[in-house]
Automatic annotation (TrEMBL):
UniProt GO MF annotations: isomerase activity
Name of the protein: Sugar phosphate isomerase/epimerase
UniProt key word Isomerase: yes
Superkingdom classification of source: Bacteria
Keyword Isomerase tagged: yes
Domain Xylose isomerase-like TIM barrel: 22-263
Pfam families: AP_endonuc_2 (PF01261)
Keyword field: Isomerase
Length: 271
């Protein structure tokens, strides 16, 4: 089984150092986020000023990984698609569009994001759910048109702590948006409280772009490293081979001290 690691696992390292670490450990891929000791453009649930990042510099970063045999299937955005102020939401969408443009330049197929949230009031709230869901659909529809233009795909990461909290709701959202440019970043830790391992693939198998390797206790808010939660990894990986064989499986919630051990765990579960 080929295992990758998200680049943001090593924020104090340069991209060259991260690429070397992944190569030495035998990792196959990375979800590239522009947060490192030498780039500071990735802002979780927000955006940053990318005006001083040249196309040449970005392409050189991607080449750093590829030259060491590390596939780069995804350029991470993870901005807020449900911002209430229209000018704020539009600025986030334009920030996202710039990532799609860069992904197109580098031949990166997937540009992932979560739904977005408001600190201190994350999750499903009956007083605002319908308005936020409609706002999310509107944002995704706008982005899908841009994705067509740039020949890339949006990979949406659903989560029990966001307004798309289950595999079924993610599938229903995809059908409502109605664009084949909208795919799913399947993170089992984000769905295990609301969806079984089987249901994740039952509803989402045709829509999977790639997968995160992360775990969670069913009644915990925070994710954990693979093997530290309640996911049945032997079952999950059996289903992976049946429904998503060969799609990037990229570890998240690991660090420089434990990522090799977590890679070993995955190989053990897979065996």
């Amino acid at each position: 089984m080929k295992i990758g690691v998200v680049s943001r696992s090593f924020p104090k390292r340069s991209h060259l150092e991260i690429a070397n670490l992944l190569q030495e450990a035998g990792a196959s891929s990375t979800e590239l986020c522009l947060i490192s000791s030498d780039t500071h453009y990735w802002t979780y649930n927000g955006r940053s000023d990318m005006s001083d990042l040249s196309d040449e510099r970005f392409l050189s970063i991607v080449k750093t990984y590829r030259d060491r045999g590390i596939e780069v299937p995804a350029l991470g955005v993870f901005t807020n698609l449900i911002a209430r102020e229209e000018n704020e939401r539009q600025a986030n969408l334009e920030y996202y569009e710039n990532h799609m443009r860069l992904a197109n330049l580098a031949g990166i197929p997937f540009v992932p994001t979560e739904c977005g949230f408001f600190p201190g009031e994350r999750g499903v709230n009956t007083d605002r759910y319908e308005a936020e869901f409609d706002r999310l659909k509107d944002s995704l529809s706008w982005l899908c048109k841009k994705a067509e233009q740039y020949n890339v795909y949006i990979a949406l990461e659903a989560s029990l702590v966001d307004i798309v909290p289950s595999a079924k709701r993610a599938r229903d959202l995809i059908e409502q948006v109605g664009s084949d440019r909208l795919k799913v970043l399947l993170d089992p830790a984000n769905l295990i409280a609301n969806s079984s391992e089987e249901d994740m693939f039952r509803y989402l198998a045709p829509h999977i772009a790639y997968l995160h390797g992360k775990d969670r206790k069913v009644n915990d808010v925070w994710g954990r490293a693979v093997g530290d939660g309640d996911i049945d990894w032997r079952l999950f990986l059996k289903l992976y081979h049946k429904y998503a064989e060969g799609k990037p499986f990229i570890l998240e919630y690991v660090n420089e001290d434990n990522f090799r051990e977590i890679m070993r765990r995955v190989h053990e579960y897979d065996a």
